[in-house]
Amino acid sequence: MSSLDPLFDEALRDLADRGMRRTLRPGRNGSGTVTRDERILINASANDYLGLAHHPLLAERSAEWGSKYGTGAGASRLVTGTLHLHERVEARMADFKRTEGALLFASGWQANAAVLPALLKLAGPAPLVFADRLNHASLHHGIQAAGIRQVRFRHNDLDHLEALIAERADHPGRRFIVTESVFSMDGDRADIGRLRMLARRHDAFLYVDEAHATGVLGPAGAGLSVEAGGADLVMGTFSKAFGSFGAYVAGSRSLCDYLVNACSGFIHTTALPPPVLGAIDAALDLVPGMDHARRHLQVSAGRVRAVLAQLGVDTAGSTTQIVPVLVGDASASLELAAALERHGVLGIAIRPPTVPPNTSRIRLALSAVHDEAAIDRIIAALTDTFAVTGRAG
Ligand code: PMP
Predict the structure, then answer these.
(1) For residues 89 and 80, what is the distance between their CA atoms, to the nearest angstrom?
(2) CB within 10 Å: which end of the chain, N or C, has fewer?
(3) Does the active-site annotation cover 171?
């Protein structure tokens, strides 16, 4: 019992009263499935987009590097934590992203939260940061941690972005544009090509989060920024299509060297451990050659979207493997999730504050390991559920 427990309990009661208290529920993840309460469900809510989290090559190399090089790196990168394995994976990532350099981070959340303050402190007293309104919490956090009030543009509305930049044409500060390439909750894409043009025209630094595109979209799965010709900084995570954990930042050699010297979240944390590096390295062997899986994934997503369109369900402009089933009301989204689960499909309800008020949804996240039969079952679950009541039933 701690002295703050009464306050914790009060906060929890308040959340429960507003239907917003969250709890953890364990499951056992398989390849495209999850076992909960002894039932095997189709997992339509994981970010294991290529099914690599259960690929034997990743498991083997992870075990091999663990036994050969140790289960922990033992220190931070600048002390004795840098192994040749880190340098190898960083060089391979830079090749994959077609950048001069790449740097490993502990997680995607931590990379965004730590890199943005390091960049913004360099930019002088009043940098101007233009951020998509639906950017991930870690991006918001990084900008906030730098003590900067971001200028938010309407989601994917680059005319609005341009107008906001123009309104501040006389501002002396450096400009930054921060966006995701595939939005985590809507599954739609930013127009990186146009963002590049805008950034060039207004002398802005373009920061792109490719968490949900890495391994999935762009040439050989390298992401949408590679397809569009690059960005000043691209980050992404190994925790989704790469089936593992950790994150990367890719960009110029100077950027990477600067971060090694100035980014607290890189400097003051222990280096990624060998088993994780082994899994990433094995994923790098596989991902570029997985065009077939990537095509199958997008065909599957297209099928699910087409059925939802027939049912009159809004999918928020999704064009990727992330297919939101927009419900609006938070409790209706929970009912829909429960109904899908009764039909053998796990689709998690996402509610405020993760998404804006009245945009609660089931976030379907499909995987290339969902075969046609699994997609058929997801479609049947959605159709049956919507057929019963016209909505969640
Ligand atoms: N950026 C985006 C857009 C994300 O969706 C996420 C994770 N949901 C992250 C960053 C954080 O990545 P990680 O899970 O590796 O911390």
Answers:
(1) 17
(2) N
(3) no
Helix (H) or strand (E) holding 153: strand 151-153
Catalytic (active site) residue 212: yes
Assess whether pLDDT exceeds 70 at residue 393. Answer: no
Query: Which among 51, 71, 49, 110 has a CA at the least distance from the CA of 277?
Result: 71
Residue 33: give the domain boundaries.
Answer: 21-50+290-389
The interface predicted TM-score (ipTM) is 0.99
Residue nearest to atom 15 of ligand 1 (CA): 108
Nearest to 218 by CA among 250, 173, 255: 250
Task: Say yes or no: 162 and 40 in one domain.
Answer: no
- In this predicted structure, the answer to whether residue 275 has a pLDDT above a threshold of 50 is yes
pLDDT in tens, 226-246: 999 999 999 999 999 999 999
Instruction: Spot the catalytic one: 48, 90, 180, 232.
Output: 180
* Residue 350 domain flag: yes
89 in Cβ contact with 244 (< 8 Å): no
Q: Tell whether 284 and 294 lie within a shared domain.
A: no
Tell me if residue 184 is catalytic: yes
Nearest to 210 by CA among 232, 185, 237, 191: 237
180 is catalytic: yes
Half-sphere exposure of 366 (CA within 13 A, CB side): 32
97: domain CATH number is 3.40.640.10
Question: Which of 49, 143, 184 should be mutated for ligand 1, with most atoms under 8 A from CB?
Answer: 184
- Cα 141 to ligand 1 centroid, rounded to whole Å: 12
Instruction: Quote the CA–CA distance of 313 and 388 in Å, as a whole number.
Output: 15
Of 273, 288, 303, the residue at which a domain comes to its end is 288
Catalytic residue among 138, 184, 318, 360: 184
The pair phi, psi for residue 29, each rounded to 5°, is -85, 135
**DSSP string for 312-345:** T---TT--SSEEEEEEESHHHHHHHHHHHHHTTE
Residue range 39-57: mean pLDDT, rounded = 97
How far apart (Å, rounded) are the C-alpha atoms in residues 239 and 246?
Answer: 6
43 is catalytic: no
Mutate to test the pocket of ligand 1, among 239, 320, 363 (most ligand atoms within 8 A of CB): 239
